[in-house]
Amino acid sequence: MKAAQNPPTTGTVTPADLLRMAALYLRRHGWHQGTYYAPTTNIPTPPACAAGAIRIACAGRPVEQFAQLDGDTIADYVTTLDVLVDHLDATAPVFFVDEDGYLLDEHTSPYSWNDDPTRTAEQVVTALEAAATEWDRLHTAGGENR
């Protein structure tokens, strides 16, 4: 199987599965900051940011624009990114406050979190895996989705 192909599945792919696939992708192909994917030529598996790795896990290939995805893949991406955001809100909150002291966003931005200059690849991979573990804890019983 080529790296850009979707893996065969026999059951439902969960957000936890996609988060683990994204973490594995980053371990194998590298992590990136600033854009979804590192600007490379002729490489079907470029280094990616956390959100870019989740897009690859969902689509099976690098995807820059939502218009390049079907509705089910967009839903999988948004749901999986939301699971990561929930995890980051609980473990590494980053909130933005305007000059008047008003909270601009009540959730941690996975993009800003990924692009923090002090962030490391290992922190990103660990967060993806931890978010997957938390999703499994909350949504499975005896190995079955609920």
Question: Your description of this structure?
Answer:
With 146 residues, the protein is mainly α. The chain is built from 5 helices and 2 strands, in the order H-H-H-H-H-E-E. Strands 1-2 form a two-stranded antiparallel sheet. A hairpin with a 2-residue loop joins strand 1 (140-141) and strand 2 (144-145). The longest helix is centred in the middle third of the chain and has 21 residues, at 71-91. The radius of gyration is 16 Å and the shape is globular. The two termini are 31 Å apart.
Topology:
Layout: H1 15-29, H2 50-59, H3 71-91, H4 110-115, H5 121-139, E1 140-141, E2 144-145
Antiparallel strand pairs: 1-2
Describe what is shown at a glance.
This protein is mostly helical and 146 residues long. Helix content is 49%, strand content 3%.
Biggest pleated-sheet summary: 2 strands, antiparallel
Structural shape: globular
Q: What is the number of strand segments?
A: 2
Q: Could you give the order of the helices and strands?
A: HHHHHEE
N→C terminal distance: 31 Å
Class from secondary-structure proportions: mainly alpha
> Low-confidence spans: pLDDT under 50, at least 5 residues?
none
Specify the helix fraction band.
Answer: 40-55%
Tally of helical segments: 5
Strand order in the largest sheet: 1-2
Mean pLDDT: 87
